[in-house]
Automatic annotation (TrEMBL):
Gene it is expressed from: rbsB_1
Keyword Membrane tagged: no
Gene3D superfamilies registered for this protein in UniProt: 3.40.50.2300
Domain Periplasmic binding protein: 45-305
Gene Ontology terms for molecular function: carbohydrate binding
Family in the record: Belongs to the bacterial solute-binding protein 2 family.
UniProt KW keywords: Signal
Gene Ontology cellular-component terms listed: outer membrane-bounded periplasmic space
Localisation: Cell envelope
Signal sequence coordinates: 1-22
Pfam families named among the record's database cross-references: Peripla_BP_4
Record-given protein name: D-ribose-binding periplasmic protein
InterPro entries according to UniProt: Bact_Solute-Bind_Prot2, Peripla_BP_I, SBP_2_dom
Keyword Repeat (UniProt): no
Amino acid sequence: MYEFRRTLIPCGLLLLCAAIMGCDSQTEQSQKTSDAKPESKKPKIALIMKSLANDFFSTMAKGAETHQQAHSDDYELVVNGIKDERDLSRQVALVEEMVANGVDAIVIAPADSKALVPALRRAREAGVVVINIDNKLDEEILATEKIEIPFVGPDNKAGAKKVGDYLASKLKAGDEVIVLEGIRTSFNGTQRRLGFEEAMKAADIKIADSQSAQWEMSMANTLALSMLSEHPNVKAILAANDSMALGALAAVKNNGKAGEVAVVGFDNIAAVQQAIKEGQILATADQHGDQLAVFGIEYALNLLKDPNAKLEDRETPVDLVTAEDLK
């Protein structure tokens, strides 16, 4: 029995040592695994737009989705929008939701140039890259919030002036026109109004009335009917976007002035292209909506690769579109 115990004890020691060595090996392997660099993941970019009921933003979404499909190895895309361009609280909520969902970048066409800035500041503080497209954020509010957010988009004033100049070439000095403005707290709405005004002033054409239809077709139709009745000598309606131009066109027809009152717009949506071909709308401006979000996405991807890159605005093209251009 004594000899048996002498043999058993060394064997137990051997098993214990083997177990300890095995644990050390597993610990070492675990340490190696934890020290290894995590697998790189594709950045996730959120596109947040204004009204999805507006054809311009539908075109923007399709352009962004087409770009992502062609670059599916480079990034993931989440597309969002609000039903009504006046629903600022919902757009703010979308920004917060995208940050909570861990997106790496937000490309946003803000419904308001001021109201979205605090939410976007919080997104920046959370480490999210933010690119502003379409409607420029208010510079004073950005300064107050102490953040820089680059703007990627067209010179809206210059685009509206091109449309206004073309309309003026079809009118004569002293003629009266009316203007349908966008949301007055939106930078692009203000700039388009200023572009129209500059063109009319240069041609000595009188703006008889100017009111905000808040980018909406139905509101534009109602306002235009009222304004045409109040100003029966009006020769043209300048609408700050194409949805309002279509509403104005319907008002002109209902007022029995088709062919007498010209209509111009801004955005170059499909329905207005057709109306221009048919001679019902005189002109619009093309800010290349199918590429506008793409320009912003590409800038965001560059900043994700180089976080220390200098932030700067980037101007995108805007072109006059007439019947001659659509032949």
